[in-house]
Prior knowledge:
The complex is a heterodimer.
Chain A: H1 2-7, H2 10-36, H3 42-63, H4 71-95, H5 100-125, H6 130-138, H7 146-175, H8 177-182, H9 187-209, H10 215-226, H11 232-256, H12 262-290
Helix pairs in contact in A: 2-7, 2-9, 2-10, 2-11, 3-4, 3-5, 3-9, 3-10, 4-5, 4-9, 6-9, 7-9, 10-11, 10-12, 11-12
Chain B: H1 8-34, H2 39-47, H3 49-59, H4 64-89, H5 93-115, H6 123-128, E1 138-141, E2 144-147, H7 148-166, H8 168-176, H9 178-184, H10 190-210, H11 212-229, H12 233-261, H13 274-297
Antiparallel strand pairs in B: 1-2
Amino acid sequence: MSADAAILSDGHARTVIATLALLGAAGGAIGTPLVLRRHALLGDAVGHATLPGLAGASIVSISLGGTGREPAVLLGGAAIGAIGGAVMVGLVRRWARTGADAATAITLGTFFGLGVVLLSALQQLDAGHRAGLDAYLLGSAAGLVRADLWTAIAIAAATSVLLAVAHRDILAATFDPTFARVIGRPVRGIGIAWAVLAVTAVVAGMQAVGLVLVVSLLVIPPVAARCWTDRFPVAVAVAAAVGAGASAAGAAASAFAPRLPTGAMVVLALGAAFAVSATHAALRRSRGARA
Amino acid sequence: MTVPAWTVAVDGWIIAIAALASVACAVPGSFLVVRRESMLADAMSHGVLPGLAAAFLVTGTRSAPAMAAGAMLAAILLSLGWRAIVASCRVERGAALGIAYTVMFAAGVVLVVQAADRVDLDPSCVLFGSLELAPLDDVELLGIRMPFPALLLAAVATSNVLLASLLWPTLVAESFDRDFARVTMPARWAAPAAMSAMSAATCVACFEAVGSILVVAMVVTPAVIARLFTSSMHGMVVRSAIAGIAAAALGHVAATVLPGIVGLHSAGIHDLSTAGSIAVTLGTILAASVLVDRARRRPYPPTA
């Protein structure tokens, strides 16, 4: 771990904090309609579905003579796994005649199971390799580079543009998709665009926060925002602010204490922000009840 | 020789442990699916990590009873925290679960890092489990040596069946129609409490054998498979136990035999993870069941 401390020089720490702040802001904004549409845990299935992608990409790379650790190859594999997970949640809901909760749980279990099978094969192919993938399970900010900051900027920009251009349609598709469809709004297109954003944010966030906990970026800020406001645009803005602030604080905390995993620190900071918000909501309600 | 030599003492126990886990999961799994609370299994299996780490930090040992007690306390804490978030924040239950378990898992990771100097309590070990090693942890009972996980799972399976039979009408009514249950059932409060207790005990007993994330597959997938073939709650529990047992056997066979059949031995791959293989087998059985279901229903218009 002392090597990590050396890597975390000032410039790198700034990159990590900026990247996580942007991903936190984008995650909060992307998560708000998902939470309101009761799709909150889609990100959990998608996050866990990256594991077979990572392990599969590593196996393919090794069998083609590579090292099995090229970041671009691993991220490509993770993206394929994430897309597969998002598609499977939809298919299971439709075809197995079941709720979103069971579809999410089945996708998560099946994909993670496949990931564990591929990992067990990978370990026998190349002993000691798993250490390379462990960083993705619980997140490691030490691996973040300048390119990841640019990716985070791109995701945050794409989310802002989509929200600015289509926020009325997003609002309609979130609260009353049937009505939106009847009046001819592109509900399906918005759903797909939003799923693409969510998958991209999960894959980008997985590196820093880890695939097990990355869902927290999409879920905690929107619920915290829900404690402060009943208006959709305000909720999106508050969620983005909570996500940015808490992620940056968590990243900073792990830069000062490099033994603590970045992902866990970010989630604990998000949890603290949520606790403050929930306390505020409870106090406001008890004041309202007395008045 | 492409097929590895099997030993009843090891492979038999692995399948038996996985089959017992399936039976233990069938009762809470069926109810969680019809209650639309499937993700509680996922949340519980993640949420026990701080309990495990705290139990180790307090007792200084990795003894099974201390670990089980810590995990059970953490599962109860998670359940209480979840219901508190639902009550105070007006959000859907899935989102509230997402908050409760990610925060608890993160706290667990921090605790594990604190304990890491003294023990190899590896978070990824909790995530993946080690079904292959489970038969080695054996105890003697009535003169027969048997693995501790098998005993624990048998006990949990029995208590799940007993608790569910005791509360059956209340559980069924409360799961399908909360308002009806509120006005007709004297002990309506017992249903959510029993659901939490059964889920927690099952997740704690299973995760040591099959790993925390594969618990989700074993709880939810068989119940959804069963739901495709029956409309009765009894039928669902029985069929999901059968689907789970079948997947346990097929999954272990696939994990040990498949690498030899498809020629992976030359690449140095001899056997695959049994727990992972069982989860994938369950997914495959679900896919086949969906095809059967769709073929059977084709002449009729879809019912919502």
